[in-house]
Amino acid sequence: MSLILAGYLMVIIILQKKFDFSRVEYGLSAALVVCLLFLPLGLVIKEEINSWNAKKLALDSISKVKVVTENPKSEAPQLPSPPSSAVVTTDTTFEKKSLDGIVQEKSKNSDVDLKDPEVSVSCWKTVFQPPARGEDFTILQALFSPDMLILFVATICGVGGTLTAIDNLGQIGTSLGEEYTSWKLKKKELESVPSRVIVEEPPLPVSEIELPEYSSMVKIQEKEEVGCFSDIFKKPKRGEDYTILQALLSIDMLILFVATFCGLGCSLTSIDNLGQIGESLGYPQHTISTFVSLMSIWNYFGRVCSGFISEKLLLKWKVPRTLMMTLALILPTIGDLIIAFPFSGSVYVASLLIGFSFGVQLTLLFIIISELFGLKYYSTLFNCGQLASPLGSYILNVQVVGRLYDKEALKQLQSKGLTRLMVKELTCIGKQCYRNSFIILACVNLFGALVSLILVKRTMEYYKSDIYKRFRDQMEANEKEMKMISPAEK
Hints:
CATH topology of the domain at 238-477: Growth Hormone, Chain: A
Strand content: under 5%
CATH superfamily of the domain at 238-477: MFS general substrate transporter like domains
Order of helices and strands: HHEEHHHHHHHHHHHHHH
Distance between the termini: 45 Å
Number of helices: 16
CATH class of the domain at 238-477: Mainly Alpha
Number of strands: 2
């Protein structure tokens, strides 16, 4: 359903840039978006009603049971039989089987009615009676719980704010560039003003500084080394729980860090410069905003598709997920070359490739870290691995692409007979503005793909094995333990 919604938004965005919508058409498109948003809730309600009807039908199909017993002949007068269809008149034990288990009813020298006491419960009656946290909620119980509402609001604020910041990053950089230029001009005007003289107190001599005893420092250091580094080079098998230091100092994590640096760093650099790329190639402003929207939508497609496609390939043909990471690094290489050597409408194609590959890489990074290094320290290891993304973005965006863009812009200023101080901001127009920059980005992406092939080779045998066997064994052990505990409680 979410894929349909994303595809619909992409089509509407493209049509909106090509045609002028009336107020009625905007209202109809918005109403359809709202319907698509709430359609999954209708499916949930339908499934709950079907489940409730199935349980009710199963309870109604239980046949009535009639038990007849004969007393030995005696001189005692016979008691009149009760009108009930299911009666036990002597000391008997009646066992009735139903869908929920075995209910034992005992009667001693008394009449016992054995009709089914269970009453079908509506699927809505337990909506506001959720179980304890950690137990299995029904779908409606989870959707109407305060915890889900809080998570929903937090996701809107966090993810929505982050995406808004990413979409406006180009304009933010432009405004900050103007502020920086004006600050430099003011600083140059104030260079002739004498600066203040600050007198600092001299530092204490080394003899007066209190130092701890050397022996105590050595003991503390030895204790820390024993606690942290004792098993750092005794790594477990792939898939088992690594400690943080074992994972961070492993070759697999190093390869993954380099691949993430190249892939996510180049993708973020392309996203941040998308507005200026469109401007340099002569696209109108409303078309540039379309590039950003398309990249965001295809980023979502990449996140969704990478999970189930890689899972299908792994289960059916034992294709390692690391190979999917390699393919995800090749796609932005093509996109970077399309920007470096543009043609008519090339930025549309490049935005699709780069956005899709960015979503694939980020999702596969989650999965690969959890599968190779275990789940015990997953959150810490993922954050450490993701540090390569902002690091790559800073080096490639600021130090490489930014400098080369400014160099080309200064060349254009000199050809016009202008200097840097005569303009507020540097603007470069033409295909040559980003050509060298994106050739470098394409080479970096290709290098990351080649490095990730080493990880593919190292993890090939691991992914050919049953990587979920450990989890199934744990589930079976837990089930056996529960079966052993349940008779004891009875």
